[in-house]
Design brief:
Two copies of one chain form a homodimer. With about 375 residues, chain A is mainly beta. The first copy, chain A, is built from five helices and 22 strands. Chain A has two domains: about 10-225, Oxidoreductase, molybdopterin-binding domain (Sulfite Oxidase, Chain A, domain 2, Alpha-Beta Complex), CATH 3.90.420; about 245-360, Immunoglobulin-like (Sandwich). The relative contact order of chain A is 0.16.
Amino acid sequence: MTDPPPTGTIASDQITPEELRLAARNHGLPLEALRDPITPAGLHYLLIHYDIPAVDPADFRLDVDGEVERPLSFDLDALRALPKVTLPVTFECAGNGRALLAPRPLSQPWLTEAVGTAEWGGTPLRGVLEEAGVADAAPEVLFTGLDRGVEGGTQQAYARSLSIEDALESGALLAYEMNGEPLPPQHGFPLRLVVPRWYGMTNVKWLTRVTALAEPFDGYQNSVAYRLYDENGEPGAPVSRMLPRSLLVPPGVPEFLSRERSLEPGPVELRGRAWSGQGEITRVEVSVDGGATFADAELGEPVSEAAWLMWTFHWQAPEGTHEVCSRATDSAGNVQPLDPRWNLKGYVNNAVERITVTVAQPAQVPS
Amino acid sequence: MTDPPPTGTIASDQITPEELRLAARNHGLPLEALRDPITPAGLHYLLIHYDIPAVDPADFRLDVDGEVERPLSFDLDALRALPKVTLPVTFECAGNGRALLAPRPLSQPWLTEAVGTAEWGGTPLRGVLEEAGVADAAPEVLFTGLDRGVEGGTQQAYARSLSIEDALESGALLAYEMNGEPLPPQHGFPLRLVVPRWYGMTNVKWLTRVTALAEPFDGYQNSVAYRLYDENGEPGAPVSRMLPRSLLVPPGVPEFLSRERSLEPGPVELRGRAWSGQGEITRVEVSVDGGATFADAELGEPVSEAAWLMWTFHWQAPEGTHEVCSRATDSAGNVQPLDPRWNLKGYVNNAVERITVTVAQPAQVPS
């Protein structure tokens, strides 16, 4: 690593006031909520680049335009009249784990909690693109939201593109429901894109325009953000599908300030979730000695083809302080690393989580 | 102020990893949501001392015991069969503004966003206490939640007491609904206390026991936490009803990392919310010069007798960088201070918010 740290990063483990301001509004999943197969809407992680727009559903339109034979425009009723699919999908922010990197990229300072699984309801994107008749020559489809803000010095609407293959073949939904209810404002009311298996930046919220492009999109979120930069600032590969990750439902009870866990000695069922956007989860291993040794956990069934599974591990917890870790492997051969892999903007850090657990007999409190 | 900073505080403006961990789970209101009179559940601020407990509503009981003539035990259906009241109530965390103090107390690092207004539905606490027949000699009523964790070195359930007068006369509710739905898990499912006008720590979540006490409660949350300590560590007055505060719906659009606002020159309607637990809001003033001069805003009607109002202020925004502030006054004569008033644990800092706004013609972006 260079010294001083690269531009846009900080070597200190202390968080800057700007990062705190982001952390106060964008929140993670409280990790105990990993027990739920479907995350309640208010517990699902949130990363909102600009402000939540106020959208009057009566005025809302989704326009489908660009390199298409038949430009289309839908109101919400027209979208709801199209074939409907509901699917539990695990989302994870591409920046999850960023604040555990050193030096740390200055952006939303996620630890490991930027995840959630919701049941999304909507109509397949593919059907709408086929109805519009996307031109064979269109290499990409652009998705534009109603939210506006400044990034890279330019005011813009949030917008991301997908290749035409990914737009047609990924199982993407134009989603107007979350967990059986209309989308909450913070999750894109009234309409968002949901692309199974991709990191969260793909799932454009407050979606108002789908545009078939004649040329690849060179906008901020694809060409500047969400790429795996090296330490010299060279943009590398774009961020795409999720790497495998596993997390624990933190055992025992927390201390308020430190969030450190304590529990009584004896048998304890450790459990958690695991997911990957690159294949099925084929293995989860657990370590109770900080990653020195691992043993296999039992795997449950995935909540859906695009969602996490629960894993369990029986531990005879001895007195003492232990570092508990879990490590997932997927069918594409990806394994969570023990140590973070660094990149300049702090994306896709799927290193194993480490939870410190103190196992002790309960204190005898005088009554 | 002493040097070095008092135990439990930090002089740096950088946030520690422990504070970040709290900020990643406990989130504020995204300030643009101040436009809504009633805050959607997922946008309401959250401060959870321990973990969110998983409660099976079929097993849930509320027990009313202690110094009463008739101990009572309710299941949820029995509570729902009692007289029902719904009331919009503004909540604010007692620690709101803590991270703007110097030196800063080490705890949840709130800026100004730890607020929200929900419509709570439930049965008046007073009716249940009267049905149980609280003894005349009982000076306090204790409220105990199902959530457990460690604070002050001791494992405990979250528990807070109120004086018998406050329990009977504050309009407190045993609430099982938020915004017309069953409570979300993070807001206390299936039952919580709601005490209008008090800071949020009073509103015990996952409420399972109401106990009339023969002696004042000396538990952690009343006797150690939530008191206005001086810099020598002497516990002062307990935290009780909210001081007045006003906040702006941030004008213009944000920059992603800094959250700084930009807007075009010309007329702009500044608006925001104001509330107090100590009286009615009688005045809100706005400054566009960092607090050097103030002018009166127009006040709307409060959303309820226990909730915020909206204020508006017409500004002819000139080009340049401006610091916008608002200052509320209540009918008890409390006025928001321009600078924070310090206490060791960082409670009730209601100093005026300062938002930096850059007013400029939009950049000519080449098309």
